[in-house]
Amino acid sequence: MTDPTPTSTSTTWPWIVMAVAGLVTFVASMTVSPDAVQGQLSRIMYVHVPSAWLAYLAFIVTMAASAMYLWKRDLKWDRRAAASAEIGVVFTGMALGLGMIWAKPTWGVWWTWDARLTLTSIMFFIYLGYLALRRTTDDLDVRARRAAILGVLAVVQVPLVHFSVEWWRTLHQPATLLRPEGPEMATSMLVTLLIAVMAFTVMYVAMMFKRIELGRLEDAVLIAEQASDGAVAGAAVTTPTIGRGTA
Amino acid sequence: MTAAEQWNWVLLAYGFAYVVLVLFVVSIGVRISRVRARLGDGS
Amino acid sequence: MGFFSQARLITSRDLVRERRSGEVLWVTLPFGAIALLLVPMAIGTDAPLLEQVGTGLFWAIVMLFGVLISIRQTTGETQAQRDQLALTGIDAAAIYIGRATASFVLLVIFEVVLGLVTIVLYDVPVSGWWLVPILITIVAAGLSLLGTLAASIVSTGRNAAALVPLLVAPLSIPLLIGATQALEVLDLGGSSLAWVLMMIVSTLVLAVAGVLSARPLQEI
């Protein structure tokens, strides 16, 4: 089932929203007072935590949209899943990178094998696999069906992945798990963190609008290309000659 | 670690985060305009 | 023809093809074995180190290389062959189970042989040997179900060779962690039951997912 070619005009409000959200986060995290223990390093949390939150949110949206596609067989759900996956992989990469940048000065190492970090890196690879799968074909329906089934397969296996990693790390890690924000968070820090999370969520929504628009346009190109390939079957049928032809 | 050293790490973090975000957002915009151009002058 | 007879038909077809081509025996297995040979060259050959990493490394190699069995040449099909098989009227889920069973058999052989190689090269400790056949069976079942499903998803798509392993690797983690932890816990005197149960749950989930996806995947 394919959608007709979209003729929507381009919207500009998403760009503005993205810029404002980014600015708000930046200003909020720079103006809040630093943590007593971690000092200025605590500011990194205000981009790291929202990134991680979005990474997981986008993942859930991808999986939910995949299930909706399998149910409704409407390509708009596939576009939503794909958009969320692309945005999600960017935020997952950011979360991992920011986690490393925060970890090095704090703990002296770039990486620790705690459950959260390990699971985030696993999710990164699941995203990559999903996006790679979408590149295996240009047939819109085939692509959508394959990706959606992978999405649903991931959603049923990921809880087990999550569970096994968590369990594994609790057996191997000392009880005092290090938390990036320290044992307690000052109210000002909590408020700033919430502002950053909300700003990033709004940014995600705006990104989704534009990325889905891109998806619609790209699908339209693919449909147009596939329609123009090859002769129309009916062209091979000609009117039969009756009578004077050679028998 | 001095406050100055900490700020270096904060700068690295924000630089990384915002460069990635800007590049990603710009890439969406560029791809949209490219595809619109393709659709515009016919397939 | 009943569901399981259909599946059995597919399994024997796959195994006959494999016997003729010998891909698992002569290619995939040696590849796994040489991986086990390569690692000590990279990380050092002192016995205590190898003894420590041996078991875990074995399971890692099984997860990473075992998926090659699910995507072996003898299961590779063109779109025309797939269409023809679909036209025979054999249940798509039976094809899936049949394929996965064939891969299961080959994976068990793969694991047993590589297990022997690991014992020889890494001199792994002997506690908990009764558990190993159980783990080998569950891992082979889970990995073959997962690998066959991933191969069906990618199907005739481009870049299939490395894509199927990429899709399988993260989702095989419960099996990997389960197998390694089950043995480790036993070493420390605890019970592996919880880990084994988790692995069984994972395998069942994969079986259900595979069976339910079989027809939708066949239709495209």
Concise account of the structure shown:
Chain A has 247 residues and is an all-alpha fold. Helix content of chain A is 71%, strand content 0%.
Question: Mean pLDDT score of chain B, rounded?
Answer: 90
- From the alpha-carbon coordinates, what is the Rg of chain A to the nearest angstrom? 24 Å
Number of beta-strand segments of chain A: 0
- Structural class of the secondary elements of chain B? mainly alpha
The tally of helices of chain A reads: 6
Q: What is the helical fraction of chain B, as a range of percent?
A: over 70%
Bulk shape of chain A: elongated
Shape call of chain B: rod-shaped
Beta-strand fraction estimate of chain B: under 5%
> What is the H/E string of chain A?
HHHHHH
- Nearest-angstrom radius of gyration of chain B? 18 Å
Fraction of residues in β-strands of chain A: under 5%
* Largest sheet report of chain B: none
Defining key terms:
heterotrimer, A: 247 residues, mainly alpha, C: 220 residues, 9 helices
Written account of the structure:
The complex is a heterotrimer of chains A (247), B (43) and C (220). With 247 residues, chain A is mainly alpha-helical. Chain A is 71% helix and 0% strand. In chain A, helix 2 (45-72) packs antiparallel against helix 3. Chain A starts with 12 loop residues before the first helix and ends in a 19-residue tail after the last helix. The mean pLDDT of chain A is 87. Chain B is mostly helical. Chain C is mostly helical. Chain C has 9 helices and no strands. In chain C, helix 3 packs across helix 6 and helix 6 packs antiparallel against helix 8 (173-187). The two termini of chain C are 25 Å apart. The interface between A and B is medium-sized, with 38 and 26 residues.
